[in-house]
Amino acid sequence: MCPTLPLDLLSRMARREAGALTLVPESWARTGPEPGIAFAFVPCRWCAAPLGPIEEETRPRAAGLPLLTLLRCEELTPRSLLPLSLIRTAPACPRPRFCTRAAYWSRCIPGGWTSPDGIDHGLDLLDAKESWFDAFRPGAVPWTLDEEVVLPASTRARVRPGGGRALHFLTPHAATPYSARLNDAYLFARITAVRAILSMHDHAAHAV
Fold first, then answer.
1. Where are the domains of the chain?
2. pLDDT tens-digit profile of 5-23?
3. Structure pTM?
4. 153 phi/psi in degrees, rounded to 5
């Protein structure tokens, strides 16, 4: 008998990512200077991806920029980074610090992908760490969180000869039948949420 999927949790996380993907910058962000983001690449506990020249060049330098920590073996789409580019910072504010879902899971969630109960517990922890986005209003107030939080974004493996490029809401390393079912349900919920958001007549995208 197949384990029951946590559909409510998956839908909540998918709607969160859909909201991030459909953000529309305010006029000040569209006409101002290009925002900066710093990246920190860390080892993956599931593979031995080396630190390449791109990672060497993008090691964090500017202390005030939002910092995103990700695994050496993964990459996000440019659209996924939009929330980070819309954060307001101020000299007295803490540095905005983020990590990808895969980086958080690799560092903080023990065990492998064979236990559905273990995966569901990890999803609960992940959901809590990215819930900051539920109250996020781009540019409304300066960033105040003094802890690292998770960026609600799906990921994919970096380009390698013969390697797959399939999108996964956690990490492409989650390659078990249960995690595949989770991913299919999540991606369906995500595209459904994106379509619902963009179909609203008063969505800000229609005015840009």
1. 7-199
2. 999 999 999 999 999 999 9
3. 0.87
4. -155, 140
